[in-house]
């Protein structure tokens, strides 16, 4: 059940419309940075393997097989080590993921402002960012200095009467990925706690079966 829950959360994060709209973009020959998906794929793998290993553990407990319970314990140790490694990787790269996406957006934004922007897809990429995240411009300073591009690139719903003010896309990108990584972190902690209890209980059961077989 825990493996199924983790798999479901990972698949939901993988096919979330906001992240897929942004991370599938391509600016000329350059693909949007999709390092974020590495953590998602690890969660998907862990969830799927946990479901298989769970069946193995249940069958071993029903059959009172020390061999199957020992294999179950070994698989849990390996999964736990992989999850800890993935957690360390995610903690180290959590700021870099948003930074890479912001740099990709800035490059597209600069191309969209260039006179020859019609020859590339910079405007299309920028519009996708703006419509998906409901924001406009890399920062408020640029928005105040260059008002001419806003009618062309910004979502119409963001235009206020009088002095136009737009949400910061850099901030929106930070909020998007910090929220998703927060969910991944919660799922990883839940899985780790469940795994620890599973390892303890499987060893207790295995030792109980071994001791009872003596009599």
UniProtKB/TrEMBL annotation:
Superkingdom of origin organism: Eukaryota
Disulfide bonds: 135-169, 136-154
Transmembrane segments: 36-62, 68-92, 181-205
Pfam families the UniProt entry points to: Tetraspanin
Keywords, in A-Z order: Adaptive immunity, Cell membrane, Disulfide bond, Immunity, Lipid-binding, Membrane, Transmembrane, Transmembrane helix
PROSITE patterns in alphabetical order: TM4_1
Protein name in the entry: Tetraspanin
Naturally occurring in which organism (per UniProt): Centropus bengalensis
